[in-house]
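Q: What would this chain look like folded?
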Amino acid sequence: MQEIRDAILAGRFDAVGSLDVPDHYRGVTVHADETEIFAGIPSKEKDPRKSLHLDEVPTPELGPGEAIVAVMASAINYNTVWTSIFEPVSTFGFLKRYGRVSPLTARHDLPYHVVGSDLAGVVLKTGPGVNAWKPGDRVVAHCLSVEMESPDGHGDSMMDPEQRIWGFETNFGGLAELALVKSNQLMPKPAHLTWEEAAAPGLVNSTAYRQLVSRNGANMKQGDTVLIWGASGGLGSYATQFALNGGATPVCVVSSPEKAEVCRRMGAELIIDRSAEGYRFWRDEQNQDPKEWKRLGAKIRELTGGEDPDIVFEHPGRETFGASVYVARKGGTIVTCASTSGYEHSYDNRYLWMNLKRIIGSHFANYRESFEANRLIDKGLIHPTLSKVYPLADTGQAALDVHTNSHQGKVGVLALAPEEGLGVTDPDKRAKHLDAINRFRGI
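A: My prediction, written as structure tokens:
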């Protein structure tokens, strides 16, 4: 592993293919025999530091159409938080089901799960049938894993019946020194970004692209007003950039003055600090407060000059969904994913049906959407929202930051990269975008 690291750090990418792939590597795991360690503990009190382990694990067999990547950096997504606290279900059920698909997928059904759905690194080895990538290629990976043996996925690969999220519903994820991916997950690493910056956008950037921009999501157009919950967070920070770049007007909902300032740095002008406004959308565990929905709607109209949102970018879920349905304009769209505050949504259907609104479910992104989203990063039109970086050994703390919402944008993790700031091969391009690249740093 040290030889691989040294070759990459020295820029000897052509030499990487001649190096042996190690038999073992370090990966961040959860253990099947610990799925009950948080039994009886409220979700908010479950600590990922207790369940995420840095283990030496065997390198998986390389199959057709696959690649092994030396991971220089990765990042935390909310699916790693869910995995670490074993909610809403243990991911070992996913691995067992995947293991039954074929003799090759049986590799994934193990008593440990190597987690992580982002990476930036270097291809070490490719399996039979891989022609588009070779050892030494610098890459990032999106997290769509599909078998593509059914006709259902060929119009939109997210519709494949064997569609999964790599590192969450499959094993051998990106929070590790090595990762196993399908070769069609690989995309070119933007040359102007460091390893940790390049690793950060993958999942959330592609998810926000499909949810907001794609015709499979809200199909945003110029002039739209877009209400974005958690606008400085992992998903929301990319949605805010897409809205601004696409000629829409984002109305950014945040929870502190510091997060409001982050949105202003991105160029947003219409901002609602929900903590300062004191919104309480639920009177108690069973009952929402429609007066609070109306108060939010009035605030949005005050900011927009009387306009309601054409699109509501929804991902908190249970806590905010009733308000989201209410505030969307007549004929507007509520596009939803994630549900980080709870999966069981309730809303007053009169505001949906009588006002001809639409609810669209959106999940990650297909191959084309992922490539388009990465292309925008490469062009310097969308920028990483990386705020803090941890070493691989502190992945538990990084996940806790996301679990407690004490972070901004994305939280990165260094794998083989020994320090931050490495991996840039186009410094001139970087210099043009440096302020935008760094606007989340240290916040």
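The first helix runs from residue 2 to 9.
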